[in-house]
Predict the structure.
Amino acid sequence: MGIQLTQFRLYRYTCAEECEHKLLVRVNRPSHPNDDQQAEDAAEDFADSAADHLRTWWQRWLLPRDCRREHESRLMNVLHEAISEELNGPGLREMLVWETVIDGDPVIGVASAEKEFWRQLDDYYGPDALPASGRQTVSHSVYFLTEQDGTGDLRDA
């Protein structure tokens, strides 16, 4: 059985004037039978459709508040491992996220500083499970949206 996965999809929007905006969407890919390629394709299409819906809404209603120019978008990464509770809650907000790779898997978390992010990683994995040196992270200032944000208050957007 292919398990249900929560995906965090990070998109980058740019324009000719060199502005940059980043959007992080949280979507779910439903479980599916392992031996059924059509079911697996349908599960992936479900997640793609949810992400496209959230991106389209953000591009139409929120992005123009910051920048009215035409933008090109690119999927930067799809992450499955989130270490911060803020990423399990509602979106409709801006946040600073950090990304790193642990044992070959990209990991994402919310923190105000890199040091705080590494503290969260230590708490999540245990201090002995993390590399002592060569810790590479990337931060992203993002707008965060989820499939559940239809229950939120748009005055908070």
